[in-house]
Design brief:
The chain is α/β, with parallel strands linked by helices and about 140 residues long. It has helices spanning about 15-25, 40-45, 65-75, 90-100, 110-130; strands at about 5-10, 30-35, 50-55, 80-85, 105. Strand 4 (about 80-85), helix 4 (about 90-100) and strand 5 form a beta-alpha-beta unit. The protein is globular and about 30 Å long.
């Protein structure tokens, strides 16, 4: 199955980016762009359209949580779902992610099935929200 959504994968570790990208390709997501840190990702988000951001939490320069917070503050970006990936499963991290507007949260180590299920849940949830709150029709 070919998925037509555009995904931005953000991680400072190239090996982790490669793993996530491989999982995404194997899941049928072909339009994937990579960024090596939050600053680079935020710059890409301001110039290109994405349907989902998958970001590591712990990165230098701008963490995944800071990236999420920056996305949620921007009116043109705040609608984009953000999936945080982290090695930390502490309760306070989950609470911080939810309070900052994370669409989902995955704890390392994870497998392709877990990643795929979380992405499908996030995307379906987004479709459900759009269906419940359709954009008003513009009168010409």
């Amino acid at each position: 199955m070919m998925n037509t959504i555009r995904i931005l994968v953000v991680d400072d570790m190239s090996s982790m980016r490669r793993l996530v990208v491989r999982f995404l390709f194997d899941l049928g997501y072909q339009d994937v762009v990579e960024a090596s840190n939050g600053n680079e990702a935020f710059a890409l988000l301001q110039t290109q359209a994405f349907d989902l951001v998958v970001t590591d939490w712990s990165m230098p320069r701008m963490s995944g949580l800071e990236l999420l917070q920056s996305i949620r503050k921007e009116p043109d970006l705040q609608h984009i779902p953000v999936l945080l990936i982290t090695a930390e499963a502490r309760k306070e991290n989950v609470i911080a992610a939810v309070r900052s507007g994370a669409s989902g949260y995955v704890v390392k180590p994870f497998n392709m099935t877990t990643l795929g299920a979380k992405i499908e849940w996030i995307l379906q949830r987004g479709q459900d929200i759009k269906a419940a709150h359709p954009e008003p029709r513009r009168v010409q």
